Amino acid sequence: MIWQYIIIILILLVIAFAILRTKRKDFKLEANKLIEYLGGTANIIRYEVNNSRFVVDLHNVDLVDKEGIQKMGAKGIVEIDNELKIIFGDDAKQLKKNIDDLK
């Protein structure tokens, strides 16, 4: 009788683990998308993370797909001259790390 409960608990744990795993973001894919939405690597001069903001200096801001960045989960985009401040929250640091790995 107790074995039945143990088996049910194990099955529920496996299902919960599978659900959590599918909800995790693939930050390498997200980093590639972000580079594309920023106009490609040739358009990026410099980038850094400041708390929850991803700050990027660009050659040409007109090449940026702001709508695509918003769809990625950006909470806001501030444009000052050729600089964008993109608010990603906790994901900003992970995105920068994956972009560093791509370069």
From TrEMBL:
What is the originating organism of this protein? Answer: Candidatus Coprosoma intestinipullorum
Q: Does the keyword Ribosomal protein apply?
A: no
Q: One cellular component GO annotation, for this chain's record? A: plasma membrane
* Protein's GO biological process: N-acetylglucosamine transport; phosphoenolpyruvate-dependent sugar phosphotransferase system
| InterPro entries in UniProt | Glu_permease_IIB (IPR036878), PTS_Glucose_EIICBA (IPR050429), PTS_IIB_1 (IPR001996)
The name of this protein is PTS EIIB type-1 domain-containing protein
**Keywords of the record:** Membrane, Phosphotransferase system, Sugar transport, Transferase, Transmembrane, Transmembrane helix, Transport
PTS EIIB type-1 domain: residues covered: 28-103
**Can you tell me where the transmembrane regions are?**
6-22
Which PROSITE patterns does the entry mention?
A: PTS_EIIB_TYPE_1 (PS51098)
Q: Name one GO molecular function term.
A: protein-phosphocysteine-sugar phosphotransferase activity
